[in-house]
Every structure is written in structure tokens, then in C-alpha cells.
Amino acid sequence: MAAGILTFHRNNNPGSVMQAYCLSTFLGLPIVDFTYPNRLDAIKRLCRLPGDMACLEWSSKKLHTTKRLHKENEAIEYINSLDYVVIGSDEVWKHSNAQRSHLMCSYPNVYFGHNIKCKKIAYAAALGHKSTLGQNEIKHLDRFDLISVRDSATYDAIHNVSVELAARVQLVSDPTFSIEFFEPSKVKKGSRWLESDYGITYSLMQNPLNPIQWFEAVSALEFAFTRRMHGLIACLLGNTPVHVVCDRPKVKHLCDMFSLADGWPDQSDINNRIRKNREGHEHFRETIKAFIS
User: Between helices 267-292 and 14-27, what is the axis angle to 10°?
Assistant: First the structure.
């Protein structure tokens, strides 16, 4: 069957690029190479650090994508030629109508399945800071055939508005948990990218690291500080103790998932929880297979 993934893959953010890479690899599907022009222009303007450009260039060269689609109508036509499309991961349901931002797309858009006629599967999708859904958004989400969301805030927002829709929603973690894309055990502790062996995960963007190298660099730290979800994921994968500024729903969900309020877990506990997250991805992949067969 013909299928593809619709996500935020062209990015200067290593976590966003890696979630796209991991999901594409895990499902064995190409990424539909479409990004709304205003979003792509904004991302290019934000490429101020060497790591920003390294991430954006890596996403252009290393991701498994379809042909480049420059306009929304081209993307819709291509997607409608498929048997099904997987939409997600990331904050694909965060839009500029709810919160003004040059990085967001206006609503309605293809990430909500607008004008998409083929079967639609939401994979670890998220709303971002938005905690409520409008009636039109609910109607769009109700047209999805399968739905999984990435964090408890998105899960609760859907549960609060529609009992029928809530019964169909599953929680699935970020796709960077779905595969092992680097080997933490082979990363030597001791940063060669920062002046000390501890630091803010974002400060590593001062170096021209591609997304995989960025995750490895975080895991090489002895201690880290972060307020970013993928900064925290990199610390968990690399067993780097971290002080987390927990001011975002997606970060809070991850802290709760790993019980970080009780202190930094031991390595065996982290590994067990990572394994359970991976099993969640495998279960949802089997759900997809059963649905399309």
C-alpha cells in the first residue's frame, strides 16, 4: 500500500528533525516533503547558530522523503493519491489562529487532515500550549481513522470535549523512543563541545552538530540543564542527570512518565521505562498494520 508521513521535518531543531527521522525509520515510510512556505522561511531566518544550519542541512540530505512539494494544493493532490497518511509526531495541531507565531500554520491546514480524502492516522500528535479544542477542530480530528497523541495535555483536551473521540485516543511517546539511533554506551562522558562537562543543552547549538551528533553530545555531559523536551529525552537516553525547567505541558508529561520529581532514576529504571515506551510504539505500529490490512 502507498503511504507517507506528514510532519515537521524541515527544521533547525535537532529534536524535531530526529522525531521525523525515527518515525520514518520505525514505520518504514517516506516523509511527504511539504512544508508551508511561511514556516520554512521563518525557520531559515532563525538559523543563527552553526547547529541550526547543520540541522536544517541534515534534514534536507538524510531524511527519506518524497519529491519536493512546494504548494499546499500539490501536497493535497499527492497525499490523496496514497492509501493512507500518517500525521505526526510533534505539535502539528498547534496553529496560528490559537497562538500567533511565525512558525505556525493557519487553521485549517493539512496537519488536521483538511481536504485529505485518504485514510488518516495521527501518530503522537500534540497541541502544544493549547488546552482546548474548537468545534471545527473536533470535527477534523473525528475524521481520523486512528489517533495517538504524545502528551497528557493533548490527551486531556480531547477527552474533555468528546466522549466518542476520547474512546479512540491512545497515548504514544515521542518517536525518538521508538528506535535506537545512537549507542549511548559507546559515548565517552566528558564534553569536547563545551568548556566544562556540564551545560545547557541548547548551548550545544553553538557547534555545527547534526541531530544525531547533538544527542550524542548531550549524552557526553556529566550534568545538564534544559527546558526542552528533546533535551530531556537526550539526557534520558544518555543517562545524563539533568535539572529540568518544567514549564511546558510536553516536558511535564515526560517528567511524570519517568518520575523525575522523585530525583534522577538509576540506569536500570530509566532503561525499563524506555523499553516500555518502545513497546508502546510497537503496539501502535501493530494497530496500524491491522487497520490497513
Answer: 50
